[in-house]
Request: fold
Amino acid sequence: MATIESILHETRVFSPSAEFAKRANISGMAAYQALCDEAKSDYAGFWGRLARDHINWHKPFTRVLDESNAPFYKWFDDGELNVSWNCLDRHLATQGDKTAIIFESDEGEITHCSYRELHEQVCQFANGLKSLGVKQGDRVVIYMPMRIEAVIAMQACARIGAIHSVVFGGFSAKSVHERIVDAGASVVITADEQTRGGKHHALKATVDEAMSMGNTDLVRAVVVYRHTGTDIGWQPGRDKWWHELVEGQASECEPVWVNAEHPLFTLYTSGSTGKPKGVQHATAGYLLGVMTSMHWIFDYQPDDIFWCTADVGWITGHSYVTYGPLAMGATQVIFEGVPTYPDAGRFWKIVQDHKVTTFYTAPTAIRSLMKLGPDLPQQYDLSSLRLLGSVGEPINPEAWMWYYTEVGQSRCPVVDTWWQTETGCHMIAPAPGAVPLKPGSCTLPLPGIDAAVVDEAGHEVEPGYGGFLVIKRPFPSQLRTLWNDPERFKRAYFPHDIGGGRYYLAGDSAHCDKDGYFWIMGRADDVLNVSGHRLGTMEIESALVAHPYVTEAAVVGRPHEVKGETIVAFVVLKNKLPQGDQVAEITATLRDWVAKEIGPIARPEEIRFGENLPKTRSGKIMRRLLRALAKGEEITQDTSTLENPAILEQLKQPAP
Ligand code: 6R9
Reply:
């Protein structure tokens, strides 16, 4: 495999302040190293100790890891527990009146919900589900707005051992249908509408449409939460109002104690092609992963006000809204709306109003807020913040620096957390009281996580060389299988040719630097090969974004007879779209800039400008679409999940 030396040349390093380190859960590099050493010397002992420290077991486990049917690993598999009990009941005696959730609606209405109140509502709803005949192992599809009730629905499923499958509220009827059918769901939970940025979007009508697409006979009931009160269609017998379902239900509900390996949920995520994959997580290993990462990476302290901006429709919302913060007994903010409504100061106002200490969001949000209001953070009191986090895609050093200096006022560590739907929790991320930060790097693996960069034969590559990101040993929070598709699970994640079927293949390309820091270059399928040189799209994008004209950039490869591939860049400028002669002028400037920043091999062949880039609703740039556009192909793929379909027309036009 042809590799070239790393061309990212970020050299800034930010060490934790003595004050931060002193109070941190992992205080100093020696403490981090001690945990890594503990895992290395006794892997099962390490995870077993953590599982006893963090989780309350109904029946203690005696076995830690069972590898006999690899890669279908089992963890703690003779133990019994309940996740909802761990998230709610165990806090009641000591802190029942503590606020569990500070909810802020799209329009700014605020609701506080204590652990006691949340427990009561989860129990009542769980009893309601039981009255519909939902039992352990049944599948429940949840298609809800980002409100407390979404968390209640998920926790109620966990309480009775039902397997939830949350579908993000922005997905189409076709996607909802696909998931209902694939999961074999018996109940769907939804709301009349959701509100985001002052706009209303139908949910119940979308479920009705999905239900009319066939093969949905298993669905016995559609539970509807009344949110906006708009008129909706109603199918008597099948449809039930949430408030009527919980009316008169007991406020206690004995949890169903499940085996550690009982599936907690499935969550569909897109694969490289075709049908979405139903990623299946187990109960105990997943809970342990979200708790250890809350403790180590978010450095959770009892007086924190934690805010993860992700929707519960994504894994980030599962792990760091529904489960992680509640398992720790934290107070967290849940926000229904969008960062730019009523204006680009909304996030900063929420931080100020609720005295948020820990703020976790995505690079795409950071970049757009940086563009819309670079000075806005200074107009708010952000002094409550002590820790910032980033997730979802590589964060370019420029956005990282703005986040660090303008939002965190150079006081708060930025934890860039690399992980996936499949890993359940953070895998590579800095323990903020120990690991010095480098902007653009997710730094070092969590203790116990054996991450490496390997070539096509599974051999570790030298520092500075790119390769496939793998995790060499099984870890508790990893997916157990793909729902209904164990063969695809094996093929996609444990391919025989890399590591002999023993390594978890993440699907990302990365490299390590001489300090062992990981730099994610993007999905492995985004790696370009230009004249035999391997280049990460991320590296070129990062260079483009470093130019003062540019806000955002996405780079794809276009097949080329001689060079193998050439580089096409899609660029959003800080100013408005260039016109006439400006186009050629700015194109030349940026091409030369990249050539200077990285090397002539990285010079884009073509640059197209748009007001925006095509993104999924979770903010990921859809490079597959861009590749098709670059090749001049007609778009035949489903674009219903795009945030902004209109942008495709603009980007279709080849540069003059
Ligand atoms: C949690 C989540 C997973 C993919 C992953 C990678 C990208 C996530 C990242 C990152 C660089 C980070 N990704 N975090 N890339 N740095 N800190 O996003 O899960 O939606 O399954 O996406 O996202 O490419 O493979 P998911």
